[in-house]
């Protein structure tokens, strides 16, 4: 009898709240939705979904509006969490035990979302886990490594494809921050320890703060207009923003990875 492979990774704290990942889900269904629509196999993995399967259930509902035959596979290293989720399985939604090796029976997902997972690892571990997941993606697939606060008001994520990191996205709820740099404590593991002078991500957050303060006169029209002015200022200053006003209006910006990559 073939011995089962030991899952790769560690059990995380598993904190889960409804709607916690709505910001990244909105991004997956929006700018990244084309990947799902074109996929030969519409498999998406929610990696490390936590103590409750809430995020996987929500992802199934949200991306089902993009492609009705989407299949969400929730993967957790803790067998007890998988057993607890099993009663919620239905067509297009399943749960299984595993880790970064992605035990999907040889199938290659078009998207893998891992939120608040790698932040619980040491800084010298995340790169190997990135590489393992990337080696298992479908052609044209992406891996999203992100972090957010407990109720999803401050969120960041790195998009990776087969060649490595592509972009950093920052998404904030208006009214949930004083300065954009308040998101610093929610940066992904690859960047959270790099928010120091001399590092690119520090320069980005400082530039966001300055542009936000400069746009203060727009506050009389609401924080959304102020954020839009901030983003326009950043783009005019040469920051490589990869999206435009349609995404900015949501309190979200996406910048090319080269502009924030660790030194």
Report on this structure.
The structure is a single chain. With 263 residues, this protein is α/β, with parallel strands linked by helices. The protein has 9 helices and 8 strands. The chain has a single domain (22-194, 238-259), classed as Rossmann fold. It is globular, with a radius of gyration of 18 Å.
What is the element layout, followed by pairings?
Elements: H1 22-29, H2 33-38, E1 43-47, H3 54-64, E2 71-76, H4 79-85, E3 93-97, E4 111-115, H5 126-134, E5 142-148, E6 154-161, E7 164-172, H6 189-192, H7 200-214, H8 223-236, H9 245-248, E8 252-256
Helix pairs in contact: 1-3, 7-8
Organism: Arthrobacter sunyaminii
Keywords: Methyltransferase, Transferase
GO molecular function: methyltransferase activity
């Amino acid at each position: 009898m073939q011995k089962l492979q030991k899952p790769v990774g560690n059990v995380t704290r598993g904190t889960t709240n409804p709607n916690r990942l709505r910001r990244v889900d909105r991004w997956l269904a929006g700018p990244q939705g084309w990947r799902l629509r074109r996929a030969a196999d519409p498999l998406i993995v929610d990696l490390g979904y936590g103590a409750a399967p809430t995020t996987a259930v929500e992802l199934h509902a949200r991306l089902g509006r993009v492609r009705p035959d989407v299949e969400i596979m929730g993967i957790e290293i803790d067998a007890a969490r998988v057993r607890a989720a099993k009663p919620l399985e239905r067509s297009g939604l399943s749960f299984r035990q595993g880790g970064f090796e992605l035990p999907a029976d040889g199938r290659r997902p078009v998207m893998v979302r891992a939120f608040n997972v790698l932040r619980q690892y040491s800084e010298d571990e995340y790169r190997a886990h990135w590489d393992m997941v990337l080696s298992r993606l479908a052609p044209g697939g992406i891996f999203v490594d992100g972090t957010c606060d407990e109720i999803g008001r401050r969120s960041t994520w790195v998009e990776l494809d087969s060649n490595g990191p592509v972009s950093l996205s920052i998404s904030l709820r208006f009214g949930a921050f004083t300065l954009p740099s308040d998101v610093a404590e929610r940066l992904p593991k690859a960047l959270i320890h790099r928010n120091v002078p001399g590092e690119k991500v520090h320069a980005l957050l400082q530039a966001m703060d300055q542009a936000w303060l400069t746009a203060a006169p727009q506050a009389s029209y609401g924080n959304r207009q102020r954020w839009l002015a901030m983003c326009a200022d950043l783009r005019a200053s040469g920051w490589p923003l990869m999206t435009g006003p349609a995404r900015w209006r949501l309190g979200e910006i996406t910048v090319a990875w080269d502009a924030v990559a660790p030194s």
